[in-house]
Design goal:
Blueprint (H helix, E strand, L loop, with lengths): L13 E3 L3 H4 L10 H15 L5 H10 L1 H8 L5 H21 L4 H16 L16 H14 L4 H26 L6 H11 L2 H12 L5 H4 L2 H28 L6 H8 L4 H23 L7 H27 L1 H4 L3 H7 L1 E3 L18 E6 L2 E6 L13 H28 L10
Antiparallel strand pairs: 1-2, 3-4
């Protein structure tokens, strides 16, 4: 049972990671052309985003999303690996630019990206969309056009559907952040399985292998369970690995935060709890593989490749998490060895404008250079729950208006032979 931390306890300075790498016995593989393709892929995103500042460009290269792709899609052809690698870089880019956005802004971002997927031939703005395609839409249209030429219709449909679910979940997460709400554990899990962005990546396993699973296979309970086990492992382990960076900037979209807030866990016991969940998901995946039915030699071969792709994601993401600079900076290999994480100090927020009200910029790219397009952000509204003087003034004005309305109605009733207003039919 988790121990309820005392209010007198000091803030911890470190925590110990669970040894998930040792628990995972799957073989780690890497695409022979992975490094070269990763280099070209990061150059593609870097050159296509003129709005990035030097710090963001360093972070983009330190991310090593192309290397993650080389671990998880190591049997794909070089051409297909490049498309998937571009999407992986793009997906992390979407995650970065959506952080700090308000709900209305994430709606705009989702519309722009999904427009490129559903209307791939040319930009066709729908209601309330910019007449000029925003840069996130152009990037999506670029990699999606290359994917469409040899991606099966089933995999295409699954990719578009699950990327749409990603944006819906990001919208829910953004609304909770805007309102200062930390969800309960069940609600969090439901949303987190989509904000992870894993589900579109599963559709790209099919693309990377050059297969298209029949719907009755993709929707079979055993395959669905294997998908979810893989998603949960990648997502819950990411909550552990990313916790240090997220706590330093006050981000609460993390299972560890919820366990400490609502379930009486200390930081270390929450990390241990999530680590145990990760171990259980690996075990559940292994058990699920033994329950895969047979659909005949041709389909069975496709399923075997697909499940191997899920397995590569489990082991590849675990090892990559210590290679990327996203979570542990340049100390990842050292942290992987001793598993001790020193907590980062809290990052002070901008004093003049609260973070949730700072506008995000999406860029248009034209021949004459980038044109910044600022998504409309309403000015910060007063927090009536915190400003008691303002709340009292609002209540006083409301009372005065109600009283004035009553006097006016009495005057109308006095002047008219018939009642001026009636509550009955």
């Amino acid at each position: 049972m988790a121990r309820v931390p005392s209010s007198q306890e000091e803030r911890p300075t470190s925590f110990i990671l669970p040894d998930l790498v040792s628990h995972c016995k799957f073989k780690l593989s890497y695409h022979p052309d992975g490094d070269e393709i990763a280099r070209h892929s990061v150059e593609w995103l870097d050159s296509s985003c003129p709005d990035l500042n030097p710090k963001q460009r360093r972070a983009l290269r330190g991310l090593q999303a192309g290397e993650l792709t080389a671990y998880c899609y190591h049997t794909a052809s070089p051409e297909r690996l490049r498309v998937v690698s571009d999407f992986m870089n793009y997906l992390f880019h979407l995650d970065n630019i959506s952080d700090g956005m308000m709900t209305r802004e994430t709606d705009v971002l989702a519309d722009v990206v999904m427009n490129a997927l559903w209307l791939p031939d040319r930009y066709t703005p729908t209601k309330d969309q910019s007449p000029e395609e925003l840069n996130p839409g152009k990037l999506a249209r670029d990699f999606w056009a290359r994917c469409l030429s040899d991606c099966g219709p089933g995999a295409q449909a699954r990719f578009k559907e699950t990327l749409g679910l990603f944006f819906e979940a990001v919208n829910i997460q953004t609304r909770a952040r805007d309102e200062g709400v930390i969800p309960d554990l069940e609600s969090y899990i439901d949303v987190r399985r989509d904000t992870s962005g894993c589900k579109p990546c599963w559709a790209l396993i099919e693309y990377g292998l050059g297969i298209d699973l029949p719907d009755f296979v993709a929707e079979h309970p055993v395959i669905v369970a294997l998908n979810q086990s893989t998603n949960d492992l990648v997502t819950w382990s990411n909550d552990i690995f990313s916790y240090n960076v997220e706590q330093s900037r006050g981000d609460t979209h993390n299972m560890i935060v919820i366990l400490m807030k609502y379930h009486g866990h200390t930081l270390q016991s929450a990390v241990d709890y999530v680590g145990e969940l990760c171990s259980q998901t690996i075990d559940a995946f292994c058990e699920g593989k033994t329950k895969i039915p047979s659909w005949g030699p041709e389909i069975d071969q496709m399923v075997a490749g697909y499940v191997q792709g899920l397995q590569d994601w489990i082991v590849g993401s675990l090892h990559w998490s210590f290679q990327t600079h996203r979570y542990f900076g340049e100390q990842g290999l050292e942290v992987k060895k001793h598993r001790v994480v020193q907590l980062l100090p809290l990052v002070s927020q901008t004093k003049d404008v609260p973070p949730k009200h700072q506008p995000k910029l999406l860029q248009l790219t034209q021949e004459d250079g980038p044109i910044p397009v600022e998504i409309g952000v309403s000015p910060p509204y007063p927090d009536l729950h915190k400003d008691k003087d303002l709340l009292g003034l609002v209540l006083l004005i409301n009372a005065f208006l109600i009283q004035s309305l009553g006097v006016f109605l009495k005057y109308l009733l006095w002047r008219s032979p018939q009642p001026a207003l009636s509550l009955s039919r």
